[in-house]
Amino acid sequence: MFVYSTAQFKTLLDIDDNEPCPFTSLLDIGAGDGSVTQRMAGLFQKVYATEISSIMQWRLSNYGYTVLNIEQWGHPNFDC
After folding, report:
1. Nearest-CA neighbor of 3 among 32, 23, 25?
2. CA distance 27 to 4
3. How far is CA 39 from CA 36, 50, 56, in A?
4. pTM
5. In this model, does residue 76 exceed pLDDT 90?
6. 6: phi then psi, degrees, rounded to nearest 5
7. Which DSSP string do the residues of 40-57 spell out, in sequence order?
8. I need a labelling partner for 3 at 20 to 30 A (CA). Which of 10, 36, 40, 62 fits?
9. Can you tell me the distance from the alpha carbon of 37 to that of 47, in angstroms, rounded to the nearest whole number?
10. Strands lying side by side in the sheet with 46-50
11. What is the per-residue pLDDT across 7-58, written as a single tens digit (0 to 9) for each?
């Protein structure tokens, strides 16, 4: 996914600037280094990420995201 900005992401999800985000959690699948995740994370109360690379998992954890191991990827309670 190529996202230039948080504003572009809000447009993609049709989120009004004058209202809070209607979603509470985000799951970023294959989050890589977290650069795209960072543009989306501020809109959500909780951010989950998946990533196979252990180095990228470490980096995502350092950003404060909950990194799910492969057994947790099917968690049913994600909004976006």
Report:
1. 32
2. 19
3. 5, 16, 17
4. 0.78
5. no
6. -65, -40
7. HHTT-SEEEEE-S-HHHH
8. 62
9. 8
10. 25-29, 46-50, 66-68
11. 888 888 888 888 877 888 999 999 999 998 998 898 899 999 999 999 999 9
